[in-house]
Amino acid sequence: MTTPTNTNSEKSRDFSKFIKGVRSELKKVNWPNKKELTNNSVVVVITVTLATVAIWAIDSILGYGLNLIIR
């Protein structure tokens, strides 16, 4: 039993249909304006910075505690 294969024209038609669908979906996206983008970026940078400091602090405290135990 053989499986049917797509010809080049069918593949190109499928790809063209896919690209049209992608363009259609991108038009539906609610893109942020410059102010929203800036605000969201600031929130992300602050959140990442706070998470980094928290992880560093926990790591330092645990490292100090383990050094006391090991000595």
UniProtKB/TrEMBL annotation:
The primary location reported for this protein is membrane
Question: A GO molecular-function term, please?
Answer: protein transmembrane transporter activity
- UniProt-listed Pfam families: SecE
Function, as annotated, reads:
Essential subunit of the Sec protein translocation channel SecYEG. Clamps together the 2 halves of SecY. May contact the channel plug during translocation.
Q: Which HAMAP family match?
A: SecE
Cite the PROSITE patterns for this sequence.
SECE_SEC61G
| One record GO biological process | intracellular protein transmembrane transport
Q: Which InterPro entries match?
A: SecE_bac, SecE_sf, Translocase_SecE/Sec61-g
* Protein's name in the database: Protein translocase subunit SecE
Give the organism's phylogenetic lineage. Answer: Bacteria, Bacillati, Bacillota, Clostridia, Peptostreptococcales
Say which species the protein is native to: Alkaliphilus oremlandii (strain OhILAs) (Clostridium oremlandii (strain OhILAs))
Q: Which family does it belong to?
A: Belongs to the SecE/SEC61-gamma family.
